[in-house]
Amino acid sequence: MAIKIEMLRCFCAVVQQGSLNEAASELGRTPSAVSMMLKQFEEHIGAPLFETARKSRLTPLGEMIYSEARREIEHFGRTVAAIEGLSRAEEGQVRLAVTPSVATAILPAVIRHFRRDHPKVRIDMRDMDSGSVQRELEAERADIGIATITVASGFERKLLFSDAFGVVCARDDSLASRGEPVGWGDLAGRDFIANGLCRLIEDPGFAAIRDAALMSVPNTASLLALVRGGVGLTLLPRRAVPQEDAGLAFLPLAESEARRDLYLVSQPRRLLPPSARAFLRVLEAETSDLRGDI
After folding, report:
1. Euclidean distance between CA atoms 50 and 274, whole angstroms
2. How far apart are CA 21 and CA 55, in angstroms?
3. Number of domains comprising the chain
4. CA angle (36, 41, 42) in 5-degree steps
5. CATH number of the domain where residue 120 is located
6. Residue 23 is part of which domain span?
7. Signed CA dihedral, 135, 137, 141, 142: sign only
8. DSSP string of 37-57?
9. 236-274 as b/e: b if 16+ CB within 10 A
């Protein structure tokens, strides 16, 4: 017969209460049931655990086994609590792979909301380009991805929002002072800073501007810092540029309908851990007003 956790519980209860009757009352069992389980435990061990029939004093072996049994019961209790916490999304981990603009413009509010109700869940967020987001998802190193990607079958994908590209320049730039849409000709001869999202713009008029760029900066935060500092200008989708940034101007394009479609991608929900499913619910609720085009 294998040692069961209930045997350890009965044994520890008898030691702590000092009698079979008190232990039975604590465990919600009859004294005869506790006595039988204790007898089975001693038979399995092959030696007595108590020096007297009154169960008031442990044998030396009983002392050692009691120390181990109590430690195992405490560990089992912690394990059960952790399992129940995981199933209720009270604990666990959410692995996010997102583009930098999503990390800065969308996720802060989502994470604040999520952590209010799930303070013990660990959030692992990595910002990267869209191609890397797709690779992280397909390698199962991320639960949720937000990027401009087309993933393999088996994933859930839906459009989060679509936004138009525009010229981003310093607030004191001459283009900003004009207050009108910018044409490709207006960018000729300017210091243009390319970025990873430029690949989404297929307009023939943009090709020469992109090819002439002497700088390419993939990180959105670094890119905006350079533009803000007057190093050059760039093209970005509208929601990639913080509206409250007083040092930047976003100018619509006059000759282009180029857009960035941003998708929310995840493993099938039934395969996601509870913590990731809970994060998805908060994310969808917080971004419901973003759906649509700007």
Report:
1. 46
2. 11
3. 3
4. 100
5. 3.40.190.10
6. 5-87
7. positive
8. HHHHHHHHHTS-SBSSTT--S
9. bbbbbbeeeeeebbbbebeebebbbebbbbbbeeeebbb
Same domain, 83 and 215: no
- Contact between residue 10 and residue 26 where contact means Cβ atoms under 8 Å apart: no
Residue 43 identity: E
Distance of CA 242 to the CA centre of its chain: 23
Residues 241, 175, single domain; the answer is yes
Find where tokens 């000092």 sit. Answer: 18
CATH number for the domain that contains residue 77: 1.10.10.10
Minimal CA–CA distance to 13: which of 5, 29, 24? 24
Q: Are 163 and 293 in contact (CB under 8 A)?
A: yes
Each residue's pLDDT tens digit, 145-197: 999 888 767 888 888 889 999 999 999 999 998 888 999 999 999 999 999 89
Q: pTM for this one?
A: 0.65
